[in-house]
Design goal:
8% helix; globular
Length: 131
């Protein structure tokens, strides 16, 4: 995808930080135009979305309780105006051991979140790829 010398940053978020807006701010301040991230931590409020291919409508899942972030993965790219855009998927573990996952729209950190962002400097995106 590009040079292998991309830089990786550790982004530490604390109680009350919002994950998506925090990633957008970080990407803008650090001029990240093409990157990816992974993370873990804990949240106490989140909104997940997933698309229903049959009805072609998005569904939302609200989480309003303490949950562990057991998976957070995503990408950072540029939108049509050259601003950072974040695409994130996540899985949260609730206190009873059940999980909720999907496309992450928003999430508020309850204790801490550690997100590792890799800037893929010089990497290009592939669109409409065929096999």
């Amino acid at each position: 995808l590009g040079r292998s010398s991309g830089r990786t940053y550790r982004l530490n978020m604390v109680k009350g930080d919002e994950i998506i807006s925090g990633l957008l701010d970080f990407a803008e301040k650090n001029h990240i135009k093409n990157g990816h991230f992974t993370g873990l931590g804990a949240i106490d409020k989140a909104t997940l979305r997933w698309s229903d291919p049959v009805n072609k409508t998005p569904s939302k899942t609200e989480i309003n309780e303490e949950a562990e972030v057991v998976s957070l993965v995503g990408s950072i790219a540029q939108d049509k105006d050259g601003k950072p855009a974040v695409h994130a998927h996540t899985v949260f573990a609730l206190s009873d051991g059940s999980t909720r996952g999907g496309h992450l729209q928003s999430a508020r950190v309850s204790i801490i979140a550690e997100i590792f962002v890799t800037d893929e400097e010089g990497a290009g995106a592939i669109t409409n790829a065929s096999r």
